[in-house]
Amino acid sequence: LAGCMAERLKEEILHREKLVDVVAGPDAYRDLPRLLAVAESGQQAANVLLSLDETYADILPVQTSAGGTTAFVSIMRGCDNMCSYCIVPFTRGRERSRPIASILQEVRMLSDQGVKEVTLLGQNVNSFRDLSEVQFQSVAAPGLSRGFSTVYKAKSGGLRFSHLLDQVSRIDPEMRIRFTSPHPKDFPDEASVLQLIQERHNICKQLHLPAQSGSTRVLEAMRRGYTREAYLELVHHVRDSIPGVSLSSDFIAGFCGETEEDHLQTVSLLREVRYNVGFLFAYSMRQKTRAHHRLQDDVPADVKKRRLEQLIATFREEAARANAALVGQAQLVLVEGPSKRSASELCGRNDGNIKVIFPDAELEDAAGHGAPGRAQPGDYVVVKVTSASSQTLRGVPLYRTTLSRAAASH
Ligand code: SF4
C-alpha cells in the first residue's frame, strides 16, 4: 500500500489487520527497494515518515501511455494551511516546492514526446516557492489576496509561481498550460499570475477557486482565512483581469455546525458566481483533523444528503446557463480521442476545460496546407458550438489549426 492512505491508516493496516506486506507513505518511495527486500524475507515492511524537503525532483516519471496528449506535472507537495476539515497536512506533510529547473526539464521532455497539454499539480500551486537557488532565498514575501489571512507566518524567499508559469509557458507555444489547485489567498495584486493568464495564448483562461462554503461563519469554522465578501471580491477581480475566464470550485455540504441559513448562503454563492465546473461533496469527518478534535459532526446524514443534492442542482442550472452562453461561438478544442458514446464522434476540451463533442469529419487545415484530413488526438480544431448542457458542449468542426495560429487570428 502506497501513498497518503498508507500514512493515514498505518496502525490499522500493520497491526490490527495484517493485510499487506509493504506500507510506503508519500515521502518514502525512494525507500521502496529496501522495503521490498524486507518483505521478500517474509517480514512486514513499513516507512511512513514524512519529510520536510522530499520533492522527488530528480526522478522524472516514465510516461506509460505513450502518445497521450495531456500530462500532469507535480510541482509541489504537502500543505501548510491546516483547514480544519482537511487531512492533507497530516498525510502529505509540510509544503515544499520542487526546483524550477527540474520542472522545466520534465515539461521539455513532455513537449518532445508530443504532449499538448500540461497541468501543473500541487495542493497549493500558487504558494509555490523554489528555495533551491541561493540568490533568490531572501526575496521578500509577497502579500496575500485582499481580505485573506493564513494560520502560518508569511514566508519570504524563493522563486514564485508567476516565475514558474512564465518559464513553463515559454517552452512550447503549441502546449496548453493549466494548473490546479491554487488557493484563493495567493493571488496578491503585485504577483502577476492573473496577468500572465490574460496575456499568454497558451495558458488556459481557466481558474479553480475552491470556495468550500458561501457562509462566513462556516468559512471561519473551516479556518479558510477569508469571508464570503473577500472571496466574492476576488472573483470580481479575477473576472475583470481575465475576461471570459472559466471558473471552477469545490464545496462541502453539511460541515460541522452548518445551519439552514449557512447552507442557503452557499446556494446563493453558487448562483452569484455561476461556475463552469464544480466538485461538490457531503462532509465526512476525518480523524486527526482540527474539526475532529474541536467540532461536532452534527448535521444529520439525511440533511447533508439533501443539502448536497440542492447544491448540485443549483450548480448544474448555473453551469448550463454559463455553457449556453457559448452556443454560436467558435471554440478551440484540443482533440483527445473518440467520444465514449460514439465512434463517429471526437471528444476534446476547450480552453475553459469543458468537454466538447463533435462529428469526426474530413477537415481543412486553417493554413490551407495539404489535403483535408481527419483530426487526430493532439490536433487543435475550431468547433462552432451548437448546443450545451451543464457538463458538455456539442458542435460542428470548422477546420484544423494550431494554438499559435488560433491566437494570432483573434
Ligand atoms: S483543503 Fe487544501 S488548502 Fe486546506 S489544508 Fe487541505 S490541502 Fe491545504
TrEMBL record:
Domain annotation MTTase N-terminal: ranges: 1-41
Cofactor(s) needed for function: [4Fe-4S] cluster
Keyword entries, A-Z: 4Fe-4S, Iron, Iron-sulfur, Metal-binding, S-adenosyl-L-methionine
Family: Belongs to the methylthiotransferase family. MiaB subfamily.
Pfam families: Radical_SAM, TRAM
Source organism, top-level taxon: Eukaryota
Keyword S-adenosyl-L-methionine in annotation: yes
NCBIfam families, A to Z: MiaB/RimO family radical SAM methylthiotransferase (TIGR00089)
One Gene Ontology MF term: 4 iron, 4 sulfur cluster binding
SMART domains with a match to the protein in the record: Elp3
Sequence ranges assigned to domain Radical SAM core in this UniProt record: 65-321
EC numbers: 2.8.4.3
Lineage: Eukaryota, Metazoa, Chordata, Craniata, Vertebrata
Catalytic activity: N(6)-dimethylallyladenosine(37) in tRNA + (sulfur carrier)-SH + AH2 + 2 S-adenosyl-L-methionine = 2-methylsulfanyl-N(6)-dimethylallyladenosine(37) in tRNA + (sulfur carrier)-H + 5'-deoxyadenosine + L-methionine + A + S-adenosyl-L-homocysteine + 2 H(+)
Domain TRAM, residue spans: 324-399
GO cellular component, one term: mitochondrion
Record protein name field: Mitochondrial tRNA methylthiotransferase CDK5RAP1
Gene Ontology biological-process entries: regulation of protein metabolic process
Iron as UniProt keyword: yes
Gene: Cdk5rap1
InterPro entries: Elp3/MiaA/NifB-like_rSAM, Methylthiotransferase, Methylthiotransferase_CS, Methylthiotransferase_N, Methylthiotransferase_N_sf, rSAM, rSAM_horseshoe, rSAM_sf
PANTHER family in the cross-refs: CDK5 REGULATORY SUBUNIT-ASSOCIATED PROTEIN 1, MITOCHONDRIAL TRNA METHYLTHIOTRANSFERASE CDK5RAP1
Taxonomic source organism: Loxia leucoptera (White-winged crossbill)
